[in-house]
Design goal:
25% of the residues lie in helices and 27% in strands. The strands form three sheets. A seven-stranded antiparallel sheet has the order 12-11-10-8-4-3-16. It has a six-stranded antiparallel sheet with strand order 5-7-13-14-15-9.
Amino acid sequence: MGDDDSLLEAASRYGLTGVPLAEADELDDGANVVLFLRNTLLSREIRKRFRRARVLLVPISSFDPELDTALYTLRLTLMTDYRAACERTRTWIDDLGSRTDPVTFVSNGPCSAGEPGSRFVCKLADNLTIDAWPSPAIATGQWVSVGSYCEVALTTRPSPDRPRPFTIDGTVAAAGVLVARDPRFDEAGDARIRAAHDLRRELGKRAPIILRLKGGVLTDLRADGEDFTDALLEVTNPAYGLHATELGLGTNQHVLPHVDWAFNSQLNEGAGPVHIGFGEGITGAHMDFVVADATPHFGSSV
C-alpha cells in the first residue's frame, strides 16, 4: 500500500497487491500492510486509518522521495531477511542485558590507502532503553517501522540533567551517510535538513568518511582530507554540540552486497554492523554515518 502510483506498480511486480492510500478504509480487519510513504510524512490521521491492520511502515519521505531512491528502498525492503534480522536483534538484546564490559568495533584493515579503518569503543550505561523489534510477527493494530527490524537503536538527547546511555571513543570509518527528517520538524530544522542533503552528497563523493570521537562527542570529521566538522555542527543544530545521539547496531547485513551508498535510503542504515547518528531530525537534520565493515566484541582491548 502507498501514496504513489509508480511505487504501487513496481510493488505489484514483486507480487504485492498495490492498494492506494485513499482506499485504506476498505481493508479487512487484520490485513497485512506494507505501507510505503513516498510523498507523505507519517501523521496521526494516517495511523488512524490503519488502526485495524498489521502495518510494516517504510517512511521513504523522511529520507529521500525521489523515484529512484523509492524504487531502491522498495527492492531492499523485499530482499530483507526479517527472521534473520530478528535473530540478530535478540542476540544483541541478550548480550546487552548480560554484559557489562564495553563494545569494541574494529575493521579488518584500512578502508583505503592512507586512511585508517574503524577502531572505536562504546561504553554503555547499566540501564539501556532499546528501540528494536525482535519478533517477525506484527499483531493487529500494531505499527512497526522497517528500521526497527533492521537495527538495535540506542538513542539520547544530550542534557546536563540526564545521564547518557553510551559514550564512543576512537576512529570511525564510514562508507555511507544518511539524512532524515522527523515529521515534527520546525522551520529552522527544515533549513538545516535541506543543507544537510547537500553535505551528504559531498561527503558521499569523498568516502570513506573519517570521524573521530571522544566521550561521545565528535571532534573531527574528514573526507578526502577536507574538514567537514563545522558543517556537520551547523546542519545537526549547534545546540547539540556534535554529541552523538544514536548508536545503531545493524541487524540487516543480509542486504549488504546489494547496497548502493549513493542512495539516501533507510534500508542502508542497518546494512552495516554499526552506525552513529547526530541530531534529531526536528530542529536540525538527523545524520547517520554507517560503517560497512567492522567486527564487534565485548571488551575495550583492540
